[in-house]
Amino acid sequence: QGISWNTVRYMIGEVQYGGRVTDDYDKRLLNCFARVWFNENMFDSAFCFYTGYKIPVCKTLEQYFDYIQLLPAMDSPEVFGLHPNADITYQRNTSADVLDTITNIQPKESGGGSGETRESVVYRSAEDMLEKLPPDYVKARLVKMGALNSMNIFLRQEIDRMQKVITVVRTSLNDLKLAIEGTIVMSEASKNLRDALDNMYDARIPQVWRRVSWDSSTLGFWFTELLDRNAQLSTWIFQGRPKVFWITGFFNPQGFLTAMKQEATRAHKDWALDKVAIHNDVLKLTREEITSSPSEGVYIYGLYLEGAGWDKRRSILVESTPKILFVQLPVLHMFAVDSS
Asked: Per the database entry, which stretches of residues form a coiled coil (predicted)?
């Protein structure tokens, strides 16, 4: 009756190899490979898994071993159906892990390259951050803007979270300065201060800051983003609603879109909120080219594509450009429509 290929594919994709796969997407990919490869076409003389990867026709075990030795030690991403950029991502992640390990095992008491101690370097950095740290928010301004407006409710929530970040950063920096001066004791019980000292010296984000905020690659990028996020919220409060929003600068981007949908529903008296859907148009404009707000909905920017490219002229997705991992999208027009 021939080979039961369904049985072969099940044994490979679900039992022998599949039983070791823990990620659902990896299991789906494995079963996809099994469906494509394991069929009668395998016996065709021209069959190959990828260029140069064919099923060897050998008579002895030694011949199979010799063939295996000729295979490359490192497979290219194309062998697995991936874009060449996938190898860049892999190498980058591996390098980051190695550098993190090297940083973690460095002696904690060594001085800086200029002869400064760790404490003096961190003290100077803390003073610089405290000087640039934004002041606390004046929430009375929100009442004048209209406390029950959907967008203003969202703004209030964002300000509350940003205020918490600013307070935590200011408190920990002041305590760290006092501990370095010797005014307070940096004992083993003060794990947050010790963690802040170690991480700030290595240009990494202290854990107590990361818990209340967002992730970033370095302390410098994190602090710059704090200033940029604060600038967007402060501009919204004191200069009015922005013409285009930096959506990735919000703690809760989904809440922002929900507030926009509620605002559109209230503007159209005959719309029901549960029947309203969010749509978007990718424009051909950059943030700097936006001169006015849309008649309905909002303009947003700050979104990136990974694993794909963007043809701005035709407004379609395209294959990634070699060696370019991330592509910034133009401004998007997000708006609500009645789907009933």
From this structure: none
Distances (CA, A) of 216 to 26, 133, 190: 27, 18, 24
Here the tokens at position 196 are 């802040």
Of the candidates 55, 53, 45, 40, the residue with the CA atom closest to the CA atom of residue 8: 40
Q: What is the pLDDT of residues 170-201, one digit of tens each?
A: 999 999 999 988 888 776 547 888 889 989 99
CB neighbourhood size of 175 (10 A)? 18
Rounded to 5 degrees, what angle do the CA atoms 23, 306, 215 make?
Answer: 80
Q: Tell me: the pLDDT tens digits for 120-159?
A: 999 999 999 999 999 988 766 766 676 678 898 999 999 9
CATH topology of domain 117-241: Substrate Binding Domain Of Dnak; Chain:A; Domain 2 (1.20.1270)
Backbone torsions φ then ψ of 73, nearest 5 degrees: -70, -30
What residue segments make up the domains of the chain, in order of their start? 5-85, 117-241, 242-339
DSSP label at residue 319: P
Question: At 53, phi and psi to the nearest 5?
Answer: -115, 85
For domain 5-85, give the CATH number: 1.10.8.720
